[in-house]
Amino acid sequence: MNETILIENGTILDGNGAPPVQGSVLIRGGKIVAVGAGAGPGPGPEAVRRIDATGQTVMPGLIDAHCHLSFDDAGSNAEIFHQRRDALSALVAAYNAKKLLRAGVTGFLDPDSTFENMLDLRDAIEAGVTAGPRMACGAYALITGVGGTAGRLIADEGVTGYYKVVNSRDEIVREVRRQVKIGVDWIKVHVTGIIPRQAQRGEVCVWTADELKLLCDTAHDLNTPVMGHCRGADATKLAAETGFDLIFHATGMDDAALQAVIDRKVPLAPAFTLQANIVDYGDRLGTDRELVALFEREITDSADTIKAAYRAGVPLLCGSESGFSLVPYGDWHWKELEVFVRYFDMSPLEAIRCATAEGARALRMEGRVGQLTPGFEADILCVQGRVDRDLSLLGDSDNIRRVFLAGVEQDLTPLPPRKPIPGWRLAGMGSMLTREVALRGPQAEPFTVEELH
Ligand SMILES: [Zn+2]
């Protein structure tokens, strides 16, 4: 923490969108104290550790605004709801947190967790008990009795997996206050859910405006922001109007929803990485082509409104939705940046800004992390090559040469491989051996995005 470090000869990206500059970054007491061509320790007798970053990009660490570290790359909600154990899932999450560090993630927001145990991981990381990125987290995601995105798997009341049902105004107030007491950084709400019998409508808003307003007012009175999972125009509009501080997904906005988001400049985290992975690798997973097209349409149908929000000054944050098997920890935290470039017409520098300076909002640390600016926390990556020219460099862990968290260099040696944990995954009999499969080979597995959140 007290080491003075000079990272020299790198290409510096400040995280705030400024053009790259060649130069140095000086770190002292865990903070950035000087950046640029002339940055240096001064003439005094101070001991300085010099690091040569020739050929490397020096940039702020990535901040993943949507990563479920208690889910452990689950293949389904059923696995998360029924196969996980409290202490063990927290221990496994501690292992996975180290994967994030090795992938250049120095901060992330965990929206909701089984057993609410990511609060424990956050506190353990902050206390130095185990290594991991900076963490902000919610607890159980609040839903109404209508449900969330797992249909009848969710009990009518109480807790199921990462969900908690609140069935009355009293329960809303009581649960928000309880979560604040146990130490959440955010309250997570599933504003939309899927009604199995009405699945053709897609996700629908399962709250009234009054209920959302009560929830936000209760949380805000206790200095706690609210984040919501919203698909569809009605839910996004309601969330923006009732005071939500961060909206995930925000797909399918109409003009009114877009205006509500713009009026209040509510940050959005689309978290399209999972869909983009299906688009890019669906053929390798054996995903049906029509389903791949459906996933791509979820991105393209919403690209214009999300772009319009961004152009009107709405912050966009990068979230990976890691925690599910389609976005395993450590591999895809960078990919949302590429999605922003490909589908939202951003420059790489703009996308980097979303994943760093803007990402700080997810940690509730705006103006303190996410930029290489004097006075900021020294959360820094040294990446081989020019990241501003090729964002995919971030995807290869061999390129992540150094990671600093509050000025402390992190251990990037490969993790020892894990062995299977008994009873951890949801057992299945595998694909159905229909006569069609017997004659023609494997068919695409049925899979719907509504299952995920
Ligand atoms: Zn999620």
TrEMBL record:
InterPro entries (UniProt xref): Amidohydro-rel, Metal-dep_hydrolase_composite, Metal_Hydrolase, Metallo-dep_Hydrolase, OTAase-like
Superkingdom classification of source: Bacteria
Domain spans labelled Amidohydrolase-related: 57-407
GO molecular function: hydrolase activity, acting on carbon-nitrogen (but not peptide) bonds
A Pfam entry, by short name: Amidohydro_1
Coiled-coil regions, chain positions: none
Name assigned to this protein: Xaa-Pro dipeptidase family enzyme
